[in-house]
Amino acid sequence: MKMRICCTTCPNECELDVEVDENKHIISAVGNKCPRGLTFAEKEVVDPERVLASTVRIDGAAHNCLLPVRTDAALPLRLHFDVMRQLAACAVSAPVKMGDVILPDVCGTGINVVASRSIA
Ligand code: SF4
To answer: In DSSP terms, which residues pair with 74 in a beta bridge?
Structure first.
């Protein structure tokens, strides 16, 4: 199977054309400007990951608003829906500092959802 994968490891955003066998092993890859692109492609083929960004309800803030949050590391895409469901049921109380952990160890991954900004 042939795939085109955009490496998001750095701002170059190289497009790799990869050929993958039935066991999801990369047979060939072209288009990456450095070895990290191949590492990204190998992960992308088997279990793609992205940082998840969203918002949660915040109570007691100076202005009614939503708190922007994100995972503190790339999270497997297969878990994003579960985490979004948890975030939809989540509310925090102001004040919140950027980096505060909002949901720890999501889905047992060791990855936390943290506040992306401070809100008084
Ligand atoms: S292959 Fe290397 S240079 Fe290209 S986007 Fe990925 S990390 Fe950046």
So the answer is: none
